[in-house]
Specification:
about 750 residues, mainly beta, Maltoporin, Chain A, 22-stranded antiparallel β-barrel, 5-stranded mixed sheet, 39 strands, globular, transport, tonb box, TonB-dep_rcpt-like
């Protein structure tokens, strides 16, 4: 940290000098004003849906979920994007190209990185989980492979950025007040959702404005039946069906923004969630809140476009007294985090070339600790850990005629701290023996990235990207933070950060007037090839004891021989894989719209050798995406485009699911579930007037039995066609489901 702070001051001094030079050139202000106006027009008028098709990298954009689809389905329409689907967890766990978890995919809400990750003995490690009412979401920006700017901090495989409602989204032009009401309900466990938001916004003199918004949302989700009529998340805890699962959540969003003039802007955001989930083994209460303060400064200068943000968040997870696992009853974990971002853009001209220079930094402090309400259980050891991250970046984008060149470099520094208390309790085997471990260490990475794009025509863009990225081990990994009473404890202070080399090659097509004057064709094709070093995965060791020997490490044969050892649970620990993990594949998305009808599609074909966690079949999840995903969406517009009627087809390729342990090799094994089933949906949207719209959906119209990829084994462990569960999540796709609702803006 001491080495980093001087670098920040150097960056700021450079820009202060640049500002002074710009202010000394009063005669250039008119030209600067014209230039700035052009930039603002591009940002505010461009169709957001088209942005990925002129961006020379593997990006996608999702707009508002106007159909009221389940948030997992809504996100999965984007190439290479999946979620860990677990109705017993209640949140959103992003999986991008088979990578998930804190730092593997930088998931943000309004620019704030989400650090909360589930600690659940029933389902293990679902990466970091985001709790956000889907009706608050206005758009989602997806960056695959690498992300530039502040979004690239500690982002190994890309980023997913959620943007929430603001006063501008509700208040119409020439009005000061606006409201939005959304109500949704459906069959087959869809549950009920509702959201109400009210906003105020007013323009001030000299280009200023003031605005405020407050929104409340709630939802109830339940278990559902698959195409065979099986209840996914069943009624009893037995060998064939897990307990009933579901959840309910309440969310509050409040925003205030004030711009005294066109140069300064202040924004404040408060987001709160309270969720109660019930699943096999562990009912939980989850509460999270975050506060965000932002400041932007945009003077009449090409050198200064400054943005800063300070955020604090705190998430807690409490296990209820009726938890199946007694070691977790009454336990509460907390995850406070502090984040600071700063970034400046300078726009210059160098001959016939335009330059965009960005410098910035991100500071992040993440802590993890726990307590217990029942202090009479001394064997419940409470580990705690801390992670500090600093990311500095500078990048330059050059646009000259038909060429675009981007180069940048990022410096990542992160520190890890952890503490494992001493213990003499025989019921808590500790690794290292005896506990009393207090460690602190640092690691640094220097990550360059480069991108080149060329426009042979005004509608075709070719591009290539090359980037190094890295990610710090999170507290859960180096402290194994889900240890509980009577289970072994293990830490790994020597865990190294993950590093990746990311390559993208692709092209964009964006063209109007192909068959009609007002039609439009959009297409993005991307090939990626990544190599990950020091990939972190879970492994397990066995502890045996006998008359002649105390506790010692043994083989799985010795562990399973009950005559030679006491019954001690295996020791789990996170380790770096010695071999590089390979990931490569194709991503395609696009569409054609000619007014009266449209067609959109998304296709992904991936191959990866990501290792399977040792206990993925019992207490964790598999992160490997299915071999392919194809989505085709056809729609027509009627009644002066007030009525939209459409159909959607989804086809998922073969899926990999965990299937236990090979006791001969002591390795996790997987099963390949045959894919290829086609799932058909119907939908309709009717705009009654400019204030009200109605929508209805029929998902899985033919009630097809299929596997829903990346369904967590613990909650969705029912076997196919009523067969006993092998924890291989077959047949977990939702059966025929009808739901609908309305949105009213007034």
């Amino acid at each position: 940290m001491r080495r980093v702070i001087p670098l920040i001051f150097i960056m700021l001094i450079f820009h202060v000098e640049a500002q002074a030079q710009a202010q000394a050139q009063a005669q250039a202000q008119a030209q600067a004003t014209d230039s700035l106006s052009t930039i603002l027009v591009e940002d505010t008028t461009e169709n957001k849906e088209n942005k990925p098709f002129y961006t020379p990298s593997a990006t996608s954009q999702l707009t508002q979920n106007t159909l009221g689809r389940d948030v997992n389905e809504y996100l999965r329409t984007s190439p290479s994007l999946f979620t860990q689907h677990d109705i017993g967890q209640g949140g959103i766990a992003i999986n991008l190209r088979g990578l998930e978890g804190l730092g593997r995919v930088n998931t943000t809400i309004d620019g704030v990185s989400q650090t909360f990750y589930q600690m659940n003995p029933a389902h293990g490690w679902n990466g970091n989980t985001v709790y956000l009412n889907e009706d608050f979401i206005t758009d989602v920006q997806i960056n695959r492979g690498f992300s530039n700017g502040n979004m690239g901090a500690n982002a190994l495989g890309g980023s997913v950025a959620f943007r929430t409602l603001s006063a501008k989204d509700l208040v119409e032009k020439n009005s000061r007040f606006g409201n939005r009401l959304i109500l949704r309900t459906g069959s087959n466990g869809y549950g009920q959702n509702g959201m109400f938001a009210t906003a105020y916004r007013e323009e001030l003199s000299d280009g200023g404005s003031v605005g405020a918004l407050i929104a409340y949302g709630g939802k109830i989700k339940k278990g559902y039946k698959n195409g065979a009529g099986e209840v996914i998340a069943g009624d009893d805890l037995d060998d064939k069906a897990p307990m009933e699962s579901g959840g309910r959540g309440q969310n509050i969003l409040a925003k205030f923004e004030y711009a005294p003039n066109r140069y300064h802007e202040f924004k404040f955001t408060y987001l709160r969630n309270h969720s109660k989930t019930y699943n096999n083994h562990t009912p939980m209460n989850i509460a999270s809140y975050s506060g965000l303060a932002e400041y932007s400064y945009k003077p009449l200068s090409d050198y200064i476009d400054l943005h800063t943000a300070l955020a604090y968040s705190n998430s807690s997870q409490r296990f209820e007294r009726e938890s199946y696992d007694n070691g977790y009853q009454g336990r509460k974990t907390r995850n406070p985090a502090l984040q600071f971002n700063i970034r400046n853009n300078s726009r210059l001209e160098l001959g016939e070339a335009d330059l965009d220079i960005k410098v910035g930094a991100t500071f992040h402090d993440i802590r993890y600790n726990a307590d217990k309400h029942n202090q009479s259980e001394p064997s419940l050891i409470l580990v705690e850990g801390k992670q500090q991250r600093v990311s500095l970046f500078t990048e330059t984008e050059v646009r000259w005629e038909k060429w675009m060149f981007l180069s940048g470099i990022r410096y990542e520094q992160y520190g890890m701290q952890g503490y494992l208390p001493p213990t003499e309790d025989d019921g808590a085997i500790v690794f290292p023996k005896g506990g009393n471990i207090h460690f602190k260490r640092k690691e640094n990475h220097l990550n360059p990235y480069i991108s080149l794009a060329y426009l042979p025509t005004d509608w075709l863009q070719l591009y290539v990207n090359y980037a190094h990225t890295s990610r710090a081990p999170n507290v859960q990994e180096f402290m194994y933070a889900n240890n509980a009473q009577n289970n072994p404890y293990s830490i790994n202070p020597y865990l190294k950060g993950e590093q990746s080399i990311n390559r993208n090659v692709g092209f964009n097509i964006l063209k109007q007037g192909i068959l009609k004057q007002d039609d439009e064709l959009r297409l993005k094709v991307n090939y990626f090839n990544n190599r990950i070093k020091n990939y972190i995965t879970q492994r397990q060791f066995y502890i045996c004891s006998s008359i002649d020997q105390a506790y010692h490490r043994c083989s799985i044969d010795g562990y399973t021989d009950s005559s030679n050892h006491s019954t001690i649970a295996p020791v789990g620990i996170f380790l770096n894989e010695p071999e590089r993990v390979k990931m490569y594949g194709w991503e395609l998305e696009g569409g054609y719209d000619f007014g009266q009808a449209y067609i959109n599609m998304s296709w992904t074909k991936t191959t990866t050798d990501t290792p399977t966690d040792r206990l993925a079949d019992m207490t964790s999840t598999t992160r490997t995406q299915p071999s392919s995903k194809f989505i085709l969406d056809l729609g027509t517009r009627w009644l002066d485009e007030r009525l939209i009627i459409g159909a959607r087809m989804t086809r998922i390729g073969d899926d990999i699911v965990p299937a236990g342990i090979d006791f001969d090799s002591d390795q996790a094994i997987v099963d390949r579930i045959k894919g290829g089933q086609k799932i058909y949906d119907l939908y309709a949207i009717y705009n009654v007037n400019k204030h009200m719209k109605l929508f209805v959906n029929i998902e899985n119209l033919t009630n097809t039995l299929y596997n829903y990829p990346m369904s967590s084994g613990g909650t969705l462990g029912v076997g196919n066609l009523g067969q006993p569960s092998t924890w291989a999540n077959q047949g977990t796709g939702r059966g025929r489901t009808i739901y609908g609702g309305l949105q009213v803006n007034f």
